[in-house]
Amino acid sequence: MAKGKSRKAAKREDGSREEEGEMKERSKERIGNEGKEYDDGGSKPQPPVARKQQRSTRNVRGRGREGGGRGRMPVHYVVLPALLFGGVAIVVYFGEMWWAGPGVNKPLPLPRAVSETWRNDSVYLTRLWGTYRSNVYFGIRPRVPRSLLAGIMWYSNDGSGRMEIRHSCQHGDDLRQYGWIRHDGTSYGQQRIVDHEMMLETEFLTMANTSLGETWSARIRGKPLSQRPILTSLIVYLFNEGKGEMAYRTSGGQRSLEEVYGHTPEFRQFRLYLPRKTVADDAHHSYLAARVASPTHLDSFFKSVMVVEEGPRTWPPLPSLPGEITPDDGGPLKPNLVAYQ
């Protein structure tokens, strides 16, 4: 019996040893496979306990990024900087308004460009009249606000019915050239204007403290540039922008304007002469006397009041000035604009 038992025990031990050997071989194969995966770029094998800890850590971090606990930014971190920035912007804005307010309303501590006693200033009188109307091709005015304005405008009549008046400097006029050739800034200037069909030369001269008072003269000469006959009309006008009265005198069948005269608070008496000896004998004459609210867009006003008349000899019909334009209320005409064509 003892031998039988010992044999059975020996078999059991052999069986347990075989099982232990198989388990060791299986564990070696598993460890070998995991090492192979790690060598091929996989993740390093970890014990089951470490994996569980890693999973729990990832879950905690994920909940933090999604808005839980530690990952959420406090509200006052956003609100306080925004309030601070808004407060600084408001302070800067109202500070600039306060600083600029007194600067705009406070007069500049420098001598005035137009003195209130300019009539007693001999130096100022030498620069009283000048070509101070830079927005027109040729314009003259004094350095006195709201006073007399003089200027010219012209247009060509080729029989097509179009009338493009040149007056204010416009890019659409497409002039070849215009500008001062000579100008001393005080008393003399010479300008050349090259249009498509003609060339104009204007000269300006002032003479202060003469027997006639502060005096200026202007000369306008024209030269045709086209071989075909083109009829060109030149308009000279005088406009009173301020207070005062204006009158005129005509001749030659009441069609030709000889002079414009009147008085203003600034100049007392004034007179504009239009000598006829410089105009061709067969020229067509017309004039305009009207009251206009503003000197702005005078060229459009002249266009709107033009009338068509028969021209001299074989010329086509001419757009001409209509003479006196009576007020709509039927009262007496007190013109502040007189023009001569």
Automatic annotation (TrEMBL):
Topology in the lipid bilayer: Single-pass type II membrane protein
Pfam family for this entry, one: Glyco_hydro_63N
Localization annotation: Endoplasmic reticulum membrane
Enzyme Commission code: 3.2.1.106
Keywords, alphabetical: Endoplasmic reticulum, Glycosidase, Hydrolase, Membrane, Transmembrane, Transmembrane helix
Record-level GO BP terms: oligosaccharide metabolic process; protein N-linked glycosylation
Species assigned in the record: Geodia barretti
Family to which this protein belongs: Belongs to the glycosyl hydrolase 63 family.
Enzyme class: hydrolase
Membrane-spanning intervals of the chain: 75-99
Protein name, UniProt field: Mannosyl-oligosaccharide glucosidase
Keyword Methyltransferase among record annotations: no
Segments of skewed composition (Basic and acidic residues): 23-42
